[in-house]
Specification:
There is one protein chain. The chain is mostly helical. It has one domain. Helix content is about 65%, strand content about 0%. The protein contains 14 helices and two strands, in the order ββαααααααααααααα. The chain has a two-stranded antiparallel ribbon. Strand 1 and strand 2 form a beta hairpin. Helix 6 crosses helix 8 and helix 9 runs antiparallel to helix 10. The longest helix is centred in the C-terminal third of the chain and has 36 residues. About 40% of the residues are buried.
């Protein structure tokens, strides 16, 4: 474990950075761990794992305090961004008539975020935030219940694993069926619980004693072998740009009932393995450190940066903005064989700079507030 202060874990910060890079690259249809470990086969499970790792034991006994903490850090900030992108969506519509998602109303502003979060497509990657809030609260409540009723760690492990497996087997692949139903939320929550538990128990009982053995170079060939076997299992890709190992948590789409939990595990393992290798060389304030500290803002804004870049490229090349549907346009990469890395790097850079700018404004405001004795 590598920490730079009592409350900051640099290794987890690097894991978050690698996770958000995988998400941004995945939205550009590129996998940072090579196509052998496609982004959509593990990337969001990383954030469930890290979120579980960051849960303190004290929160299990004080769930109400944990709910307040997470509501403030996740939901409040989410709806600030929801307000911003509702306005941007309306402005885009007024400028060129293009509706990027839905025009704002009370239903898609307050309710849709908890179902699919795609009300405003320019920040639709933030769908994950309300779901993470629901998943974390569900986990701490269930863990407290399990500790009282089941008690044995092995049985608790099996219980959370069973819940996640059940979500995969019950969800089916007809994602349109669950688009606006409680089933969508329930299955996503069930799927997340095992990975939150893995992060929580990793910090509690595994990291200090067994991490060196678990993430040793000797196990790397075994992880690659498991991944190779997963590629042999018959599956149906989600769409033209996806692989047979991709699964789509938001729509509860799983190509088969076997690989999602396995590839989540191998992806998490490889990400932690890489993080352990590079963390000693990551200094506070470097680019990777800043990415890890600003994952929320990067998640919120990277698709908007994609949108701006594409608009500029299309305009410079005199291509009509209406050649693509709004949904496709948000994920559109102009000449990806040439510009895909430009999109990824510019997006990560600009969103990180914006996050730092916002935090500086916030800190300056708070300092001024304190100086005035308010």
């Amino acid at each position: 474990m590598n920490t730079t202060s009592e409350n900051f874990n640099m290794e987890m910060n690097v894991i978050k950075a690698l996770g958000i890079i995988a998400i941004v690259a995945g939205h550009a249809n590129f996998s940072v761990l090579t196509q052998f470990f496609p982004a959509y086969s593990y990337h969001l499970s990383i954030f469930f794992f890290v979120s579980g790792y960051l849960i303190k034991e004290t929160y299990i006994d004080n769930i109400f305090e944990y709910i307040k903490k997470k509501f403030k850090s996740l939901i409040v900030l989410y709806f600030i961004y929801n307000s911003i992108y509702a306005l941007i969506t309306y402005i885009v519509y007024k400028i060129n008539g293009q509706i990027v998602g839905n025009l704002p109303n009370l239903k898609n502003f307050f309710i849709q975020p908890f179902f699919n979060g795609h009300q405003y497509l320019l920040d639709c990657a933030l769908w994950f935030v309300p779901q993470l809030f629901i998943s974390l609260i569900t986990f701490v409540i269930l863990y407290k219940v399990f500790k009282k009723l089941i008690k044995k760690d092995r049985l608790i492990f099996i219980s959370f694993l069973s819940i996640t497996l059940l979500s995969i087997f019950l969800s089916g692949n007809n994602y349109e069926k669950f688009d606006q139903s409680l089933g969508l939320i329930a299955f996503r929550t069930m799927f997340s619980l095992f990975f939150i538990y893995l992060g929580f128990i990793y910090k509690l009982k595994i990291e200090d004693k067994y991490a060196k053995k678990i993430f040793s170079l000797n196990l790397l060939p075994f992880i690659f072998l498991i991944q190779a076997i997963c590629w042999l299992i018959p599956s149906k890709p989600f769409d033209k740009g996806s692989t047979i190992l991709d699964y789509i948590i938001i729509w509860n789409y799983f190509p088969n009932k076997i690989t999602p939990i396995i590839t989540s595990f191998t992806g998490i393992w490889l990400t932690i393995f890489i993080a352990k290798l590079i963390t000693p060389y990551v200094k506070p304030g470097c680019f990777l450190d800043k990415i890890g500290r600003n994952t929320f803002h990067i998640m919120a804004n990277h698709l908007f940066v994609f949108y701006i870049i594409s608009t500029i490229f299309l305009s410079l090349n005199h291509i009509s903005l209406y050649t693509l549907k709004a949904y496709d346009y948000v994920y559109y990469i102009y000449k990806p064989e040439k510009y895909i890395f430009f999109y990824i790097i510019i997006s990560l850079t600009l969103t990180s700079i914006f996050a730092i700018f916002i935090k500086n404004i916030k800190n300056n405001f708070l300092n001024l507030y304190k100086k005035r004795g308010c």
